[in-house]
Hints:
This protein has one domain (2-129). The protein contains six helices and no strands. The protein has helices spanning 7-32, 36-41, 45-68, 72-96, 100-105, 109-129. α3 runs antiparallel to α4 (72-96) and α4 runs antiparallel to α6. The longest helix is centred in the N-terminal third of the chain and has 26 residues, at 7-32.
Amino acid sequence: MTAIAGLENFLVYFGTALGLVALYLVVYTLATSRNEFALIRQNVLSASLASGLSLVGFALPLSSAIVYAESVYDAVVWGIVAIGVQILVYWLVRLVVPQLSLRISAGEMSAALFLGAASLAAGIINAAAMR
C-alpha cells in the first residue's frame, strides 16, 4: 500500500494542473484574437509552433509552482501568475512585431518562432523565480 500512498495528492495536483492548462488555453486564445485550434486543424504550422511553445512556457512555471507549493491553493495562485506572465509576453511581442496575430495566421514562421521563443524564455525565468 505504500507504493500508492501519494496517489491522492498526485490526483489532486494533476487534476488542478489540467484545469489550469485548460484555463490557460482559453485565456491565451482569447488574448491572441486568433483561434489557434482552428488554425492548427487547418494545418497552419506557425500557429502550432507559437501555441505549442507558449504552452510549454506556461507548463514550466506551473510545474515549478506544484513542486514548491505548500497547498493546492498556492499552486493555483502561482498558476494564475504564470498565465498572466504568458499573456504579458504576448502583448510585449506584439509591440515588437506589428500585426503579430495576422502574421501567424498567415503562416509566417519567423513571427511564430519569435513569439514561441519569448514565451519559452519567460516561462523558464518565471519557473526559476518561483522558489
